[in-house]
């Protein structure tokens, strides 16, 4: 699961100002168009940027995330009143009869698919997503190509920044690799509020699965027609994986 820091209200409030370029989400908007999706489940919705974009297109969205502080930020965004928000997991969505067989597309944007470290939790998530999809619906997510060794670029020297945030003043952060153990990569990313000196620590681990592992887990969860595409905004460095229920 993701680092609990995403449930910290102060960190959640500065998440978007620290990462304002979400052109990566164009990839998923293109999939909405490709598949003619009218109802989308966003697993790991975070602060709700993708669901807000969906609402702006008149598309029904449901955003689910275990971090309540992030969902609280999502509820303040444009289109939030036209989006369903759930603090929880895909499994929580699937057990509600109102959401079963309801969605045309389910997404896990950014690093969401890589935060599932345990095979059983990952498989349970995929099965829950499949239960939420209409027949013929798709799941789409991305993962970094292990051979690119992205973690070698996760250093303070390459990632350090200070951003002026309304209401907070200057906020400093960076990413620093701390450990690589097989497929598991751990890094630290503190958030420092320079106006008052508060420093909020964050330690996260991502799993860099191989293509075969994704094929196996998706098949076991009941998906077919599995495609591994080049990730449009990071060609050669990421995969866009699409599978049909």
Describe this structure in words.
This protein is an alpha/beta fold and 245 residues long. It has two domains: 4-145 and 208-244, 3-Layer(aba) Sandwich (Rossmann fold); 147-205. 28% of the residues lie in helices and 33% in strands. The chain is built from eight helices and 14 strands. The chain has a seven-stranded mixed beta sheet with strand order 3-2-1-4-5-14-13, with helices on both faces. The protein has a four-stranded antiparallel beta sheet with strand order 6-7-10-11, covered by helices on one side.
Number of strand segments: 14
State the CATH architecture of the largest domain. 3-Layer(aba) Sandwich
Q: Give the number of helices.
A: 8
Shape: globular
Strand count, sense and barrel status of the largest sheet are: 7 strands, mixed
Beta-strand content bin: 25-35%
Unreliable runs, pLDDT <50, ≥5 residues?
none
List the helices and strands and how they pair.
Blueprint: H1 9-18, H2 26-35, E1 39-43, H3 49-56, E2 60-65, H4 68-74, E3 83-87, H5 90-94, E4 103-108, H6 119-132, E5 133-144, H7 156-159, E6 161-165, E7 169-173, E8 176-181, E9 184-188, E10 191-193, E11 198-200, E12 203-207, H8 211-220, E13 224-230, E14 238-244
